[in-house]
């Protein structure tokens, strides 16, 4: 990287370029046509009549940089780098380990919105909607993608930390992304919610530029933390509490005091009417209580997951006849078809209700 004057020449420096962008102390020599083709802002800017450079006139030669006119951008140099990289090389997101794409996505979304590059903005929004969906079906696909073949749930490999996404959604005015991110964050323990996360490192290709622009007192590799504001920390805790209350109410209403279906197959049993179904509901309730308490999967404030687990128990065939001691054959719950159908419908309605209530729980409505 070569410097001239007080500017640092970036990797985006084309010898045949005809316009220099300056962001902070970084300079980028690019092509007017490339910017004008993709950006309405730059197209309008470049269309303005350009002053003629004259040695003794109103626009002396020293106003040019490397023989080119220049435009100062009030943006972070790394944001400009990612933006130009997307314009020149295309915008590509990794299919795996996608959380490392967040600095790129954040920068390009911010810059494409500001400088009216609609196709890049739509690419970023589509990616955000995949990771932070606006529908329950999209959320279920996201959660399934975050679970490997061994059943391990690892969302941070595919999605950025929700604190970062909350900041992005607030800055860019993306309410559906904000709601999904706050719900994701609320599933953490209270101390982890409060601490926040480390600001991600720069995407490969930008480290040299960032290293050249480090301010005094900031060392390369130094960790920088980001956390929620007091207002959104409170809203996240409030949403978490609402989620736990909802599950407590569901357990009491739909499991603890649940009656068999009027069409229950076992309703005419003389000794214990509908016993297989009642025993199954009790077994589901115990497992839901374990999930709510964080014992089963460490997800004590995740009603969508817990309700989904309750529904999946109806079709699972890996329960043991001897109560889990490992010596009996595997089987499913003994619930009849009619009771099963009724409870499946209850679970579906409850999950849809939870999804619709999330904006209110987090104070977004």
From TrEMBL:
Q: Which SMART domains match?
A: BTB (SM00225)
The segment(s) forming the BTB domain are 17-96
Gene3D superfamilies on file: Potassium Channel Kv1.1, Chain A (3.30.710.10)
Return the InterPro entries for the record.
Answer: BTB/POZ_dom, SKP1/BTB/POZ_sf
PROSITE patterns the record matches: BTB
Q: Protein name, please? A: BTB domain-containing protein
> Which taxonomic lineage is given here?
Eukaryota, Fungi, Dikarya, Basidiomycota, Agaricomycotina
């Amino acid at each position: 990287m070569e410097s001239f004057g007080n500017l640092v020449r970036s990797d985006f420096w084309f010898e045949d370029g005809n316009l220099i962008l300056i962001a902070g102390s970084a300079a980028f020599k690019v092509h007017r046509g490339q910017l004008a083709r993709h950006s309405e802002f730059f197209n309008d800017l470049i269309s303005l009549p350009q002053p003629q450079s004259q040695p003794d006139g109103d626009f002396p030669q020293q106003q040019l940089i490397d023989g080119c006119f220049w435009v100062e951008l009030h943006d972070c140099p790394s944001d400009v780098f990612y933006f130009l990289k997307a314009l020149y090389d295309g915008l590509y997101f990794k299919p795996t380990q996608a959380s490392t794409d967040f600095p790129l996505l954040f920068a390009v979304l911010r810059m494409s919105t500001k400088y009216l590059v609609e196709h890049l903005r739509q690419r970023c929004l589509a990616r955000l909607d995949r990771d932070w969906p606006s529908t329950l079906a999209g959320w279920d696909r996201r959660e399934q993608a975050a679970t490997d073949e061994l059943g391990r749930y690892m969302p941070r490999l595919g999605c950025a930390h929700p604190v970062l996404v909350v900041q992005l959604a607030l800055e860019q005015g993306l309410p559906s992304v904000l709601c999904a991110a706050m719900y994701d964050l609320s599933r953490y323990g209270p101390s982890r919610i409060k601490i926040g996360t480390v600001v991600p490192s720069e995407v490969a290709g930008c480290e040299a530029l960032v290293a050249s622009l480090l301010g005094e007192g900031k060392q390369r590799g130094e960790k920088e933390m980001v956390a929620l504001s007091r207002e959104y920390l409170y809203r996240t805790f409030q949403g978490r509490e609402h989620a736990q209350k909802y599950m407590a109410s569901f357990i009491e209403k739909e499991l603890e005091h649940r009656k068999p279906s009027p069409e229950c197959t076992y309703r005419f049993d003389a000794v214990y009417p509908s016993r297989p179904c009642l025993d199954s509901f009790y077994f589901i309730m115990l497992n839901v209580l374990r999930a709510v308490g964080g014992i089963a999967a460490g997800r004590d404030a995740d009603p969508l997951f817990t309700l989904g687990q309750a529904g999946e128990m109806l079709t699972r065939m890996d329960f043991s006849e001897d109560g889990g001691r490992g010596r009996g054959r595997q089987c499913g719950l003994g619930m009849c078809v009619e009771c099963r159908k009724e409870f499946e419908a209850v679970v579906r309605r409850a999950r849809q209700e939870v999804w619709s209530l999330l904006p209110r729980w987090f104070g977004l409505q």
